[in-house]
Amino acid sequence: MTPATLIDRVLGHARALVILMTVAATTGAAQATSPTRDATTEVHNETVVAKAFADWIAGGNVFARLLASDVAWTIHGSGPVAGTYRGLKNFVDRAALPLVSRLATPLTPRVHHIWAIGDRVIIRFEASATTTSGTPYNNQFVWIFRMKNGSVVEAEAFLDLVAYQQVIDNNEPRRR
Question: d(Cα 134, Cα 57) in Å, to the nearest integer?
Fold first, then answer.
């Protein structure tokens, strides 16, 4: 092997090494700046929400157990109840109580699935009850929670707002 051939070979390997190091550095930087998922947090959040729903099925109050006092709860869609409610009391008084007060039996959920991704928990469920006039109320829901320290700080709710509004419009509130 001549000295010129040896130099070409070494330079070729050096170029390949520089290219490989550049790709590795770029890939590492991209991975370092992308959001990381904390499996421990995901498991914790999913467990907290699953326990709250289990307690709700047993007759507990899912909102009192899960929601931060300063929660921002958004009901998507159109209709009188759609919008964003700031604070637990505001949400309960203006969105939850108008429905619950017109139910003769507790609203009972049936969870289809709970997913936890990062600080978000998504719950797909249906719930049913009997209204004060004796008619059935059935609805399907998807709730998306943003969790912080085991509490819901932001929520988005998707449901059949026509079914919700029919209960409000066609049933008298229970007497307290």
Answer: 21
